Amino acid sequence: MIKGFKEFILRGNVIDLAVAVVIGAAFTAIVGALVDGFINPLIGVVFQVGDLSSWVLTVPTLSGGTSTFQIGTIVGSIINFLAVAVIVYFVFVMPMNHFKERQAARAGAGQPEAEPLPTEQELLVQIRDLLQKSPGR
Q1: Which residues contact 80 (CB under 8 A, 6 or more apart)?
Q2: What is the CATH number of domain 2-105?
Q3: Transmembrane region positions (predicted)?
Q4: From CA 91, how far away is CA 112, in angstroms rounded?
């Protein structure tokens, strides 16, 4: 039982996942600071609110009170998600895909291309030609 667990941990996927989670958490802090320090004030200038968290919609309720919808928090979360997705794609995914394509091109550069297999029709034509050339006809 312990041997199987050891193989599972040392396989590499678990360690890669753990590293990704730790880096993701640190990266989220950076993007969160970018959103809070730059994007939220920029949107605040456009929508004339000091901060997205102060952008609220107050609606009267049927009982005479009020209900507050925190629109700024929702918009801020969406912007935060999009910022993380864009940065992760352009900083990590796109360069890694480019690197893998280059590695695959280098690996395949030294190997000759295999000839494509003949189609069924081409094989039948070859068989017919060989039969016509045979001396037993």
Answers
A1: 31, 32, 35
A2: 1.10.1200.120
A3: 12-35, 69-92
A4: 34
- Residue 40: how many CB atoms within 10 A of its CB? 23
Residues 6 or more apart whose Cβ sits within 8 Å of residue 107: none
- Domain locations along the chain: 2-105
The per-residue b/e assignment along 77-100, b for 16 or more CB within 10 angstroms, e otherwise, is eebbeebbeeeeeeeeeeeeeeee
| pLDDT tens for each residue of 19-67 | 888 888 887 788 778 777 877 677 777 767 666 777 888 999 999 899 9
31 close to 83: Cβ distance less than 8 angstroms: yes
Tokens standing for residue 80: 């935060």
